[in-house]
Amino acid sequence: MELKFSKVERKGPVTIVTLSRPEVYNALHTDAHFELQKVFDDFSADAEQWVAIVTGAGDKAFCAGNDLKWQAAGGKRGWDKGGFAGLTARFDCDKPVIAAVNGVAMGGGFEIALACDLIIASENATFALPEPRVGLAALAGGLHRLPRQIGLKRAMGMILTARHVSAKEGFELGFVNEVVPQGEALSGALRWADMITKNSPMSIRASKQAIQKGLGVSLEQAIEEQREYPAVKAMVASQDYIEGPKAFSEKRPPKWVGK
């Protein structure tokens, strides 16, 4: 598929997805959503790709959210089953996804970042759910993910005022994992991805899936059921499950195969 609104680069087991509509601060419209759905479908299905990084073209914006000018001009709004950018409703991907936020992350752009497992933000990054200022609401997951990630009162403080939050405050609130100098969001995300890929991808997928499924039930139920989760069962049946202890006993680095 020819990519018109995004770019994809692979560095070993890491897929880098760049939202590429810099003329509108990487805001997204319907065609971009459907393109990104296919991009993340391909990433999810590729056994050789273990971690994804999402970033924005240029140094001003990660993603300004929904392309309001395109919508106001009569453009039809909509996306595929994966949600905004093919990510916000993608609940079946057990591979880690990192947001490298290199500028404004507004509305849907912030919702993309919140849907990722980690957020690495440059010092010039700005976050907000400003939908109420234009008569809308953050219905691509922001209204539900933000309270779960930083607590109800803090989330209400951001959502009801629609205020902008800096990278530093985002770190203090707890939704940003690391703040890096301007221009280094992607390199920071690659550093985190490198740390992740030193671990067994089977273990990483099992861990992510167990966390996601466990958060939806009681602690007791999560512990009782975790060994029946598909990614956990796949880990236990994998070559990596044998290789890890063997490498440890032989005092050598493990050779992960991801199966």
From TrEMBL:
PROSITE patterns membership: ENOYL_COA_HYDRATASE
Keyword RNA-binding: no
Entries under Gene3D superfamilies matching the protein: 2-enoyl-CoA Hydratase, Chain A, domain 1, Lyase 2-enoyl-coa Hydratase, Chain A, domain 2
Domain of life: Bacteria
Sorted UniProt keywords: Lyase
Similarity section: Belongs to the enoyl-CoA hydratase/isomerase family.
Record protein name field: Enoyl-CoA hydratase/carnithine racemase
